[in-house]
Fold each of these.
Amino acid sequence: MMYIRDRKSQRQISKETGISRDTLRKYIRKYENKLIELGKINKGDDMNKVDLI
């Protein structure tokens, strides 16, 4: 949510949370793929992702 809502970089989130960037990347990709699968957003559509959060 920090990545989408607050527009923080993966590197910045990693430093703040202690979670590796690879893990963050995996979680973000999984979240975005699930939204696409559910038909809620189109790939690359940031506004709808923010609205869903």
Note: The longest helix spans residues 21-37.
Amino acid sequence: MSEAPSVAARPGSRNLVEVVLRLREAGVVVFLVVLGLAFGLATDRFLSVQNLTTVASSAAILAIAACAQAIVLITRNLDVSVGSMMGLVAYLTADWAATHPGITPVEVVAIPLMIGTVLGAINGLLVAYGRVPALIATLGTMSLYRGFTYIYAHGQEVTSSRLPPWMLSSVDARIGGLPILILVSIAIVAVVAWLLHAYPFGRRLYAVGSNGVAAWFFGLRAERVVFFAYVACGFLCGIAGLLYAARVGTVTVVLANGWEMSSLASAVIGGVSVSGGSGTVVGAALGAVVLATIDNGLVLLRVPEFWRMFIQGAAIVAAVAVDALIAEAIRRSTGGRRR
């Protein structure tokens, strides 16, 4: 008895997949609007211009870290050293700026980018060429990078009084009434999204994440793609670390502690699949806004910290469950099951 054609052979299956993937980001936007309205009804202060600016500023740096995490997730890997990379970059940059009074803005920008790129390359070498599982490799480098920060700092912090004044004032500057920090974050997310969409490297990321074996048969070198994904992740963490140091002023050895989970949660909430091959950096950035909105709204409502952690954790679990359901729907629509 002959086998019936798979669902993938049907004319509407590809359109169905595209619609489902678009709905993921649209669903995040709808959820964000509903969340904002709910908090707005619960407290008058939430929808004020000042508070919304605070929410956007809080989400700005996390959005960049979420983009870094999303690039790696698309390749069916992950990076739990994001927070440690940001912390190490921030401390080394702040310490260098504090001990070199004549440092120029170009140097302040170049130093964290180079450090972040090197740290990302180390992760990439371990995962892509060393064949170490991504979770194990980045768990190790998470402790390694954070430990090096402690050793280098000798328990000392870099206070804001030692940093160049222009470094601190730059992130507080406004253009058209909006903090430059928000504008920089939007620009970075837009550029990364455009690069992944317009250049072959972006398509290779999705191909490797969707099916690494098939990508290999089509001539793609999966190791190289995964390596450069981690390099890009480190580069973006360098930017995030620099902005974080400039924003907080006083840089400690525990800076960005826990951001590996926040960036991962933002990406997943924003529709980036933990099984690889789907999602966008724009969705990851929207996920960062969702987390910042939840945290801000709960603080205004004076919800205890343990309840805030519980609610944020519940949002993450719900996002993972939705991701699994969508992945199953896509698998069925593309012929995962045959009659």
Note: The first strand starts at residue 174 and ends at 175.
Amino acid sequence: MKRSMPIVLACSLLLAGCGADVASEAGAGPDTVTIENCGKTIDYPVPQRAVAYDMSATERMFALGLADRMRGIVMPSTTEGPVSRSPYRADYESVETLSTDVLSREVVIGAEADWVLAGWQSGFSEERGVTPALLDQVGIQSYMYTETCYNYGTDPITVPPLEALYTDLEQLGKIFRVEDRAERLIADLKARAATLERNQPDGEPARVFVYDSGTDKPFTSGAQTAPNVIVSLAGGRNIVGDLDERWTTIGWESVVDAAPEVITVVDYGDQPVQDKIAFLKSFPPLAESPAVRNDRFYVLDYGEAVSGPRNIEAAEKFGEYLRSIGR
């Protein structure tokens, strides 16, 4: 994306003072903390004008009680429905929405941000010219959430999605000097995950197909995404859970061959979820699958499906659904 050179130069001169009048928490600790993020060692002062992209990044901040520490959020229009259903709705309403489009350098520079939270290819993008390296050039620091380190750079780092979430919450706690909040939140999530693991049903786990979108070929969740964790903790088995990918496109043949017993449909603003279910019910190759025959469609809200603090709750609810159908 093209940008105005005068704007960038002006911002790079001013950013050192952006948010300088905003006080950090009393007794907030050292001037900087050193964090490892996607293979890079970064020294962070306390961000004063933080910007987060999409629900995954934003709800990490909200779960740590940081809504009042944010300059704003960039929230694509496709998330309008999920945001309205979020338990953090009051926080969303309290923070300025800077854009309802994709993350861009122009937006964060215009907001005089000093720090950006997003994922790789989920906000940050080489093609769109908004990367941590390019933001560094204009004085804006960033943090890339750990799940997306999997396909970042020439030497990707693979961290299981749930461990990646805990890592991010811990490190965000350090960056914003709210370590105690982060420790309490992580302890709660870990305890609930352990309860789910202890209560796994006996027998073969239910075969689950996670359907995001697509008619010619389905777009689904591989091993390196939150829905794979949600399905597993709930007591199911993602039919492509052995695929070492994040969100990816597969062929319908593999779905048909797996004979899913439940189809989990992700609900967000690309099209009404009932239209997605109607397509799946009318798609001839799936007609004999147990999921279609028994009308077993489970709606997974986008805010639960993306990596974030609501993944454990999503697993708890999906586990209840599986028990309700005898799986």
Note: Residues 1-29 have pLDDT under 50 and may be disordered.
